[in-house]
Amino acid sequence: MPKTLFEKLWEQHVVRQNADGRALLYIDLHLVHEVTSPQAFEGLRLNGLRLRRPELTVATVDHNVPTTTNRSVIADPIAAQQIETLRRNCRDFGVRFFDIDAAEQGIVHVIGPELGLTHPGMTIVCGDSHTSTHGAFGALAFGIGTSEVEHVMATQCLWQKKPKTMQIVVDGELPLGATAKDIVLGIIGRIGSDGATGYVIEYRGSAIRVLSMEGRMTICNMSIEAGARAGMIAPDETTFHYVRGRRFAPKNFDKAVEHWQTLRTDEGAQFDRTVTIEAASLEPYVTWGTNPGMVAPITGRVPDPNSAQSEADRAATARALEYMDLKPGTAMQDIAVDRVFIGSCTNARIEDLRIAAEYARGYRVHPRVQAMVVPGSQQVKRAAEAEGLDRIFRAAGFDWRESGCSMCLGMNPDILKPGERCASTSNRNFEGRQGRGGRTHLVSPQMAAAAAITGHFTDVRKWQFKEAQSA
Amino acid sequence: MKPFREHTGVVAPLDRSNVDTDQIIPKQFLKRIERTGYGDFLFYDWRYTPEGKPQADFILNRPEYTGSSILVAEKNFGCGSSREHAAWALLDYGFRVVIAPTFADIFHTNAGNNGILLVKLSEAQIKELLQRSQQAPGYKVHVSLVDKTVKDDEGFVAKFEIDDFRRACLLDGLDEIGLTLKHENEITAFESKRAARGW
Ligand code: SF4
Questions:
Q1: Closest CA to B101 of B72, B61, B68
Q2: Sheet strands (E) in A294-379
Q3: Residue of the CA atom closest to atom 4 of ligand 1
Q4: Distance separating alpha carbons of residues A440 and A414, to the nearest angstrom
Q5: What's the sign of the alpha-carbon dihedral B117, B118, B120, B121?
Q6: Best probe residue, ligand 1, of A31, A125, A403, A405 (max atoms within 8 Å of C-beta)
Q7: What three-state secondary structure class fits A16?
Q8: Is the per-residue pLDDT at B78 higher than 70?
Q9: pTM of the prediction?
Q10: What's the pLDDT tens digit per position in A366-379?
């Protein structure tokens, strides 16, 4: 029988199938960070357990870490304790740990791929919902809670009920100015922030195939924002080329590729649901509300709650507009911003920074705006500096920071003040996500860079680029 | 994990959809390394003003609803971040049951792993429960996992579905790690197969 990519991965990892429909899945890679792991390690201690396979576990610090220089000294004692706790736990339990000052440190979903830890065909979990990012490699990757983190540590397995499958087919050519971020915002805008609950999504179609690994990661990253258990893209030459030669890539690489080539949905395989999208219909998007499904094209307007489909939608829209302090009918391009954040596991890879720098080159950040660029990892930061991107950003008046989650969730000192409005390349515009009372608009890296320069949301399709100036 | 069989309690109506885990427990409270003590921070930004004073009109601050242990909300409850702190905060505050039309996947698992029962009812039934609990503060329902029902004293009866495995774990308070380790031979066999694949 023809099978989907997901079904192949699922079957390859079932250790045991129970009659009640639960399967015990083997986990190939467990990523760990400081926020969702302390209680799991503590649970192991209390029960006298060890990690079953510490060598399949990798940890780093990303959520809490300051992004300023000299960041090893952490002012917040509770954050410092959490980081110290992970350091100690990794030492006690024999887990590889990339500490705050390590050359490999970065957001867990950025460093996994760049170190070659993420391989096609793997099952990957982390106590973090954006683990779906790794699905870009044709891995089955999903976020778990802390009790499950403890379970994986102790058993290297996880009980799962088989999810349903959804294919989202994006065909055709993406219009100029629209990016992978706009593909995924466009998708969530159509299916809603719970449109894929209970499903694993496979992204397919010609517009997906031509994307770089960075673009694919951006899309899979936000699968969870549509409620999906995971998102995945079948591996191909682009994938193999990306993984080859990385530090933790398989030793016997060609043999691995032979297997990876079988990881694709067979002709005639059935999905539980299909969504098709014409790439040509997509535009640069901006969210206007308090969940990622509340989104409009840059040429669009803030919606009117009274034109909502249902009473529940009307109430939700009205509530979101009140929180966001927006009036129905306002043109998206007339919305002014106070802050710009280019960063997060969605859009802080080298390609994201390159494109944002193209737009920033030769300009100055609008005087009212405070803008920051936070590379996804130390490796991204070094690569960007080697290319001179930091100089472009700095010359334009952007803050250039150390790597971490930063203002994506504001657990460290990088937060919005109440009422501040931010153009952000991150993935969640929930109330208070970037700081209590802060107002988040999700956009692509170039839309964020353009908003920083003009001080309001701007259609990047009309951007006047400036040439590189000789210094 | 505390077993769950039956529970009777005061219903707190939270008539909002897409209640995300950032709202249930904001990030500034995730830095602690314990599993307990999160109840004071539950729905923090909705419960308290920026100055830290209780928001008088938020449901949990109204005296009629103090001591409530059953939360009723609208669709897609628990979406967003995987933080299990959301389940810990609900439990620590005193909630044993959340009733909604739909729940986000990761939250669903986290709640189950902490002995919180999630009950899925239809939109119409939720509307009914919201109305009854808004109109009659102190309104109670009885939730039974044994016969999979939600009932009140005035004739409301709803059957619900739950998967057998989760139900068994909740009823007995089973420890999943202990259960899984009973299959250690199978895990080891899988690992040797995996080691033999050659890359
Ligand atoms: S960058 Fe944001 S979404 Fe990504 S792991 Fe960090 S906090 Fe989570």
A1: B72
A2: 295-297, 339-342, 370-373
A3: A345
A4: 14
A5: positive
A6: A405
A7: strand
A8: yes
A9: 0.96
A10: 999 999 999 999 99
